[in-house]
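$ ./design --mode recover --in tokens.txt
reading tokens...
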């Protein structure tokens, strides 16, 4: 068991592959990866090579002090929970890859969720996702002066045929006028 990789890089690779291979819901994997990226940049050397030594609550406290509250408490709490879940899944995967099932990604809740709790969770996720700079899956595409379009939700395993399909949808919006929006092929 000494050859198991409990490093930050191992966790990040696991989250990337989990979405592509289907062992985890891709949306869950992306949200956990985003949380991990935000928090794990602040690890010390020992924590970076062995995540089993990491106390996520203490890490969040360190970041809160260093960042001087630039990450809102709601977002920090969400990142905290997502990183803990990601690490639990990763450690369970390392122990037994064949029997691995992700905790919480597609499972029914253990107890009935009250409507208010569900609404609060959605609100917290919305706050976290709309926090400046946290939307890794949104790609800005500057078209011309004062005009930027945003592409969101691309899968990690986008095929060439799927990319062509997206291109064809965008080409359908081309106006054949002599204005700035004409095709430049």
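writing sequence...
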């Amino acid at each position: 068991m000494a050859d198991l990789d409990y490093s930050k890089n191992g966790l990040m690779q696991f989250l990337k592959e989990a979405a592509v291979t289907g062992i985890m819901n891709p949306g869950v994997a992306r949200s956990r990866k985003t949380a991990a990226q935000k928090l794990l940049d602040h690890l010390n050397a020992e924590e970076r090579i062995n995540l089993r030594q990491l106390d996520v609550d203490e890490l969040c406290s360190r970041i809160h002090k260093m960042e001087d509250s630039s990450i809102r408490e709601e977002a920090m709490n969400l990142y905290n929970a997502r990183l803990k879940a990601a690490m639990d899944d990763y450690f369970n995967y390392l122990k037994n890859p064949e029997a691995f099932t992700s905790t919480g990604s597609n499972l029914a809740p253990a107890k009935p969720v009250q409507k208010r709790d569900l609404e609060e969770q959605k609100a917290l996720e919305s706050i976290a996702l709309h926090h400046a700079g946290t939307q890794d899956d949104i790609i800005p595409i500057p078209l011309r002066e004062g005009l930027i379009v945003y592409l969101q939700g691309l899968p990690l395993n986008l095929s060439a045929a799927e990319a062509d399909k997206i291109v064809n949808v965008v080409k359908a919006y081309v106006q054949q006028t002599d204005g700035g929006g004409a095709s430049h092929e």
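exit 0
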